[in-house]
Amino acid sequence: MPNINYFSEDVDFSLQHEEKISQWLEDIAASHEYQVETINYIFCSDDYLLDINKTYLEHDYYTDIITFDNSSSHHLIESDIFISIDRVTDNAKEMGVLFEEELHRVLVHGLLHLVGFDDKGDDHKILMRQKEDACLSLLKI
Fold this sequence. Notes:
Elements: E1 4-8, H1 18-31, E2 35-44, H2 46-57, E3 65-69, E4 76-84, H3 85-95, H4 99-114, H5 122-136
Parallel strand pairs: 1-2, 2-4
Antiparallel strand pairs: 3-4
């Protein structure tokens, strides 16, 4: 069974280059001394993710990603990561980047949370963006 899985809920979406992206994500985890037990990436709509945000986090706003850390032991990753394809599409347009680039950024953003990076506060946001950029530079598709 693969360690990283990709699913779609209420959107017609399939990830291109799954194997290369999975290897890239596993390599990033390993570089931070983490092993991926299982990560389930679930691609969904804004409304689907808004419902999750309200139900589980008591937040009433749209977001591009929600990461649930289900790990039971340190340095072993088990997670469900929900990504709104609607938000990724809109954010890519706003930032003037390709959809795929923004999607890859969001994919690695969730993983970076799981290996200990935070984006609460300005300094942490800057560091997170730098880590995302460094990780993106390693992805060869």
